[in-house]
Automatic annotation (TrEMBL):
One of its GO terms (cellular component) is membrane. GO terms for molecular function: serine-type endopeptidase activity. This is UBA domain-containing protein. It comes from the Eukaryota. SMART domains: UBA. Residues 244-264 are annotated as: Disordered. PANTHER family: RHOMBOID-RELATED PROTEIN, UBIQUITIN-ASSOCIATED DOMAIN-CONTAINING PROTEIN 2. Keywords: Membrane, Transmembrane, Transmembrane helix. Gene3D superfamilies: DNA helicase RuvA subunit, C-terminal domain. SUPFAM superfamilies: Rhomboid-like, UBA-like. The chain crosses the membrane at residues 40-67, 79-97, 109-129, 149-173.
Length: 306
């Protein structure tokens, strides 16, 4: 979560979802001329991942990428459990609608997009900025809502069925229906994915600097060489310059200490600001640390946490 604002670092589940969605969507769109009926498992996989036209792919992939903020906040294990739980519920609802009412749902990860929208984005992400467009007051969240509406109507009525199933699944998850929030992926599954696909999706670890501690003999040689250079540069007037430099250095040290003490003062977070961030779902210790970094500015602290 504190890995930085951009890219996929700390979000391997989102990266895997996007890779699956982009690759299957491009393959399906490129092979539309093939009339051959694919096997059942292939049909289920493409139905879950592949958007059928470039417009759906653009808006759907953008929303999936935006929702990586929840994976960073919760961790990949919990977010992966949310993805598996809500998708299973949504696909069960889609199957019921298809068999009972004859409503066919659109292909693509519509359920996950709209489960994230209702369960997480609407309730957990506060508006940060407000502006007016043609006399209509809007917030920065409006862009996500507009993109979601465009995606919901892109392949109606199938997209309405799939999106509605996702919204209902997100609502059931948020209400903790039948203990959905307590469900977790089995430890064996998490370990297997982490040790196989997870390593490919997270990429190489950042290079670490290695510091070599010099030996006592090397330190003594360096000190002797430095002392000789100072004696040669100072010459016969070295003592006077050293005394003057010592007085200036002492004064500078005292002044620097005062400046450092002033810079070290940190604005303690107010209880109201801490409570506001805790109400959004953040840990109290992490909220206090973020508020200290942001000088008790809630908006800046929220950006730091996200």
């Amino acid at each position: 979560m504190n890995a930085g604002p951009g890219g996929f670092r700390g979000a391997p589940v989102t990266k895997g979802l996007l890779l699956g969605t982009l690759s299957t969507s491009i393959i399906i769109q490129a092979s539309k001329a093939v009339r051959r009926r694919p096997p059942l498992l292939v049909s289920l996989f493409t139905h879950a991942f592949a958007f059928r036209n470039p417009g759906e792919l653009l808006f759907g992939a953008s929303l999936l990428y935006f929702y990586r903020i929840f994976e960073r906040q919760w961790g990949s294990a919990k977010y992966g459990s949310f993805v598996a739980t809500t998708c299973c519920v949504a696909y069960a609802l889609e199957a019921a609608a298809s068999s009972g009412l004859g409503w066919r749902s659109a292909s693509g990860p519509f359920p996950l997009v709209f489960a994230n929208l209702l369960s997480n984005f609407v309730l957990l992400v506060p508006p940060m900025h407000q502006f007016t467009v043609f006399g209509i007051k809007m917030t920065d969240k409006s862009f996500i809502y507009l993109a979601s509406i465009q995606l919901l109507l892109s392949a109606a009525p199938g997209s309405l069925v799939a999106g509605g199933a996702g919204l209902l699944a997100g609502l059931l998850y948020r209400l903790n229906f039948l203990g959905l929030q307590r469900l977790r992926l089995p430890t064996a599954v998490v370990d297997f994915v982490t040790n196989t696909v997870g390593r490919l999706l997270t990429g190489p670890a950042p290079a670490q600097q290695v510091f070599v501690t010099p030996t006592a003999a090397q330190l003594q040689q360096q000190q002797q060489a430095l002392h000789q250079q100072q004696m040669q540069a100072a010459g016969g007037m070295g003592g006077e310059f050293q005394q003057l430099g010592g007085r200036q250095q002492g004064a500078a040290s005292r002044g620097g200490g005062g400046g450092g003490a002033a810079a070290a003062r940190v604005v303690e977070p107010s209880p109201e600001a801490v409570q506001q961030l805790v109400a959004m779902g953040f840990d109290e210790a992490a909220a206090m640390q973020a508020l200290r970094q942001a000088n008790n500015n809630v908006e800046a602290a929220l950006q730091y946490l996200l």
